[in-house]
Amino acid sequence: MPNTQILAGPQVRLRPPVVEDAEALYARIASDPEVTRYLSWCPHSGVAETRRVITTLFNVGDEQTWLVEVDGQVAGLCARRRPQPYAVELGYCLAPQWWGRGLMSEAVSLMLADLRSDPTVYRVTAYCHADNAGSAGVLRRCGLSLEGRLARYAMFPNISDEPQDVLLFGKAVR
To answer: Which residues belong to any copy of the N-acetyltransferase domain (predicted)?
Structure first.
């Protein structure tokens, strides 16, 4: 289902990505090995690949993706998907120039606040690579609790060709 929703906070604005965002997304997010290190996808090979992802993969099926804007600039991405009818899983990434400023915590908090109005959502989860302290901090600041370390749970192709350990965070929202 297409995402048309805009969420806004004091520092960030979340809006659906459009094809015109491809160059900025490629330059700041999709081509940066620092950003993609702990993601499930490899850096894009060019703007054309980013354009293709925007038009074919974002906001398809049960996933909603937002572009994170800071001062009108492309700063990151965040998404949520429904692995089960009653649960939502969150994911996100942010360009390094905006790390350490609480921006992704604000973006995730906006997604969580929006979910509270959905009576069909009972649980929210997110996981991050076990070594990704920054992401774990975002999830803790947003009120998710560490539920455990899952051994060899997810692929991070920019780290290894073998499954890696993750930290699983969760929260009941009703």
So the answer is: 12-174
Under a CB-based contact definition with an 8 Å cutoff, are residues 78 and 108 in contact?
Answer: yes
For residue 74, list its beta bridge partners: 69
Q: Is 172 helix (H, G, I), strand (E, B) or coil?
A: strand
Cα distance between residue 159 and residue 42, in whole Å:
10
- Extract the residue ranges of the chain whose pLDDT is less than 50: none
Instruction: Find, among 142, 111, 120, 122, the residue nearest to 3 by Cα.
Output: 111
Which residues does 112 contact at the CB level (< 8 Å), separation at least 6?
124, 142, 143, 171, 173
Output the pLDDT for position 61.
76
In 16-144, DSSP assigns E strands to 64-70, 73-84, 87-94, 123-129
Q: How far apart are CA 86 and CA 119, in angstroms?
A: 9
Task: Using the CB atoms, write b or e for 74-107: b if 16+ within 10 Å.
Answer: bbbbbbbeeeeeebbbbbbbbbeebeeeebbbbb
Architecture of domain 7-172: 3-Layer(aba) Sandwich (3.40)
Q: How far is CA 145 from the centre of its chain?
A: 17
CA–CA distance, 147 with 3 (Å, rounded to integer): 30
